[in-house]
Amino acid sequence: MTGADTKAYFEVETGEQITCLFNPAELALTRSNEWRSGSRPGRAVPTLEYAGATGGTLSFEIFFDTTATGDPATRYTGQLVALMDVDPTVPGSDESTGNVRPPTVVFHWGDLHSFRAVVSALDVRLVYFSATGVPLRARVQVTLRQYEQSDAFGPQNPTSGTPRPHAVHRVSRGETLDRIASQHYADPTAWRLIAEANDIDDPLSLRPGMLIAIPGRT
User: Fold this and answer.
1) pLDDT in tens, 140-154
2) What is the mean pLDDT of residues 114-142?
3) Angle at 64 between CA 60 and CA 69, to 5 degrees
4) What is the 3-class SS of 144-159, one letter each residue?
5) CATH level 3 topology of 9-146
6) Strand partners, 35
7) Where along the chain do the CATH 2.40.30.200 domains lie?
8) What CATH class does 167-214 carry?
């Protein structure tokens, strides 16, 4: 799927990037739909009725080993724990009204990327210490919960979704697709190429802070 030297990382909504020291051994994706059935006296097994979908979850374990440097492993695990804290710098935050939340993240590994998600659960285990009590190894079980409608995983190779390997653009307040196309292609009429690559049906639906792929032009 990805090369051994390609490090997985978390792309944080606020612009930070948290790189894993070691790639996870496996990824577990879970999704579920809700189905309901009513109890009807005198009737056999009722027909199920679709009641909607629930967001997906992505679970995996990350291993940290800092025995080579002597740095505390908590230097890295603390970055993940902070993703569960409220961050007033995320787009749309207003501390005066209490409209604040932790940032969203996207998990990347090579050409693979997850849905936009929030860190819903962390299990941090410090498993090895120096003689002076410095934690040098840690295992972190991460659970990401889908934040909004999107593909479960992005393309697993650069040609399965966009014409060529693409760049990523973070939308600023007031930006439109034609302005973004003008910035990257010097051609505002190329906005449809960006819309198609990101499955954007409504070009007016861009939100400040969202990340969109900018496909290469042939």
Assistant:
1) 999 999 987 766 665
2) 95
3) 165
4) EEECCCCCCECCCCCC
5) Elongation Factor Tu (Ef-tu); domain 3 (2.40.30)
6) 50
7) 9-146
8) alpha beta
